[in-house]
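Subject: DUF1045 domain-containing protein structure
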Amino acid sequence: MFKRYAIYYTPPPGDFARRGAAWLGWDVQAGEAVAHPDIAGLDIAKLTQRPRKYGLHGTVKAPFFLADATSAAQLTDGLAAFCEGQAPVQLDGLALSQIGRFLALVPQGDTTALGSLAASANVVLDAFRAPLSEAEFTRKNAPYLTDQQRIYLKTYGYPHIMEYFRFHITLTGPLAPDQIDPVKTALHRYLVSDTPAPFTIDSLTLCGEDAQGRFHEVERFALGS
């Protein structure tokens, strides 16, 4: 039994998934810790401490508690039905980018179809999400949010959706300025150079959060199957 669920893109088994899991130190598919690569001069365990528990993923619908009237089985069936009616999304590729103080892979090319997929998932599957508690809303209601983002937070439990959605695959926690370039270089050599291009998102993954806060793959659903 998981305490929260999320809908993620996670790469299918292969070199990208394997290397990404090793970089972060957590394999979301196997549900187990994995050894980091040994890269001289970098404390990868420290660099990846914050994103580790989520595994290699891109968020489509952020973690949520199940609504009282629903079950994990119903959520699974709902996601399966949703994915059946969606088409795979093809991107030009992924590129390493700095977002604030952390590094992430971001999509290249036209992201309209990806944005539409995420928007639909947030609307169609929201019936399975428990409303935010007052404490949760207060914690997530950051001062920098726009009025529209606060509406999304209240309605869908997360502010960074719809026109504010920016797909990314987080690879580090916050970095000091003098860490950015060395970590970028290491990531290009270890992971980014092996990222497929074009990059296809042809499935979504239901993930569950365990008691320790780490996420596990529950089931993967092909888009358009």
